[in-house]
Each structure stands twice: as C-alpha cells, then as structure tokens.
Amino acid sequence: MVAPRANWKGYIKFGEVTCPVALYTAASTSDRIAFNTLNRKTGNRVKREFVDGETGDTVERDDQVKGYEMENGQYVVLEPEEMAEAVPESDKTLKIEAFIPCSQIDTIYFDKPYYLAPDKLGTDAFVLLRDGMKQEKVAAIARTVLFRRVRTVLIRVHGKGLIASTLNFDYEVRSADKAFEDLPDLKIEGEMLDLAEHIIETKMGSFDASSFDDRYEAAVAELVKAKIEGRSLPKRKAPAASKPGDLLLALRESAGMAAKKTKAKRTAANVNKGAARKPAAKSATAKSKPATAQKRRAS
Length: 299
What we know:
- With about 300 residues, the protein is of the alpha+beta class.
- The strands form two sheets. It has a seven-stranded mixed barrel. Strands 3-4 form a two-stranded antiparallel ribbon.
- With LigD forms a non-homologous end joining (NHEJ) DNA repair enzyme, which repairs dsDNA breaks with reduced fidelity. Binds linear dsDNA with 5'- and 3'- overhangs but not closed circular dsDNA nor ssDNA. Recruits and stimulates the ligase activity of LigD.
C-alpha cells in the first residue's frame, strides 16, 4: 500500500512546546464517477475557452487577470504578483490560541477535515497534547496559513491521532433566521407527539458510516451499465407528502409498523435463544442415561 502524501507539513505549538506535524486529506471525492462533456452532435469532447464578453475573441491564459468590479463595467485590476504579496507569509506553524469544551462546538462552521499526525520527530510532544486534550475533553482553536489563506482550524482527538477541520468564517455562514422565517409557531402535543416519540424510540440506533451507501453513485453506475447494455431503467414514482389532515393517520400506521418490526425482532431473538439451549438440554439428557443404567444394575 502506498503511503499517503501529506497536504501540508509544519509545526503545532501549544505554550512553549512545538512538534513537527503533517496534514493528510481525510475526505476525498476522487472515487466518484467522473464524466466528460461531449458535443451531442459529434460525440467528441469539448474544451473550455474564455472569451472576451464584448468582442467574442478567445482570451489566452497569459492575458487573463483578476478584477474587482467597483460599479457597472468599472474594475480594479489585480495582478498575480500583487495578490501574492498581499497574502500573509506562512511560518508553517499551527498556533493554538485556545482550548474549548467539545460541547461548545457548532458543526455548522466545519469546512474540510484533515488528519493531523506527527511528522517523524516530536511524537512524545504530539502524544502529550493528544492525551491532555482527551483527558480534559477539549478541542483546540489554532490559526495558520493554509493553501495561501489564513485559516482557523479546530483540532480534536481522533483515534490514535488528531483531526484538524478548517472552519468557515462567520461571514461565510448564513443566518438561520431567513431559512426558518416562514415556519409558523406550532405546538404539537397529545397523541401525535406520543406517536412521534414512539417511532423515534423504536428506530434508535448508533452511528456507523460504513452502513451509509452513496445511492446517487450507485444509481448513476446502474444507469451507465443499462446504457451500455441497451436497456432502460424503470421510472420511479415520487413520494407524496403527508397532508396535514392525514398526519395523525400516517403516524398511527408508522407506529403500528414499527411495533410489528420490534415484535418480529424479539420473536427471532427468542427462537435463537431456544435453539441455543436445545443442544445443551440434549447433552444433559445423554449424560443422565448412563447414571440411570448404573442405578438399575446396582438394584
């Protein structure tokens, strides 16, 4: 197996303790199905070109430059050298600014996760930081220049190492007020709430990422296979949303189905227990036969 390639190498510093570390990509989309854009008429691949919005002429890469629009049609041009000079220099150090309780973390700010591991030397200091954070049940807020941008990073204990998640800035996270502003103030109680709680209780489980399948990728793969084989896939009907008047009925049906599933699981479990006990009972009977025969001989 090829060793993973580090995306970034530097140092992590807490107090006056410093140790070399490396960041490795924790989530990747490289295994997803990839497509090319084709010309429908010829079947040939198309290539992307930038054209002048006014003249329609193709603009070569060396003639392309960044511009900030001040007003309609008026731009401030930013040369690559100017932008490079404006970016803060990286000292390759993740400076821990604060430790915070894990309970205070709002996951809406999470951007991209990276595995954070010690780089060759400095394992003792790394393990010290990891175990100290684990003992105190805290995460760390650090700041550094990553990929030419100053980024805030949240560092948490993850298995034998640490995981560093880049965080969205506050201005990048949209307010929830507008998303929920049309939601009326309703209070659900009585049988409907009891049934909802019952359904939730019967479907309680634990988080297992391996049990989640990418249905979109599977569906696209099946579509590609069907196209190659010259067959079509059956069309699925869209599910109908429950109407307000049918909500109680849907809850009752859901609760009844959940109860049947729970009963079936218990029955299966009891059958398995009974099957496990039978061999033991037979062996006990088999052992008792010689003892009975000995008693008869003695009499």
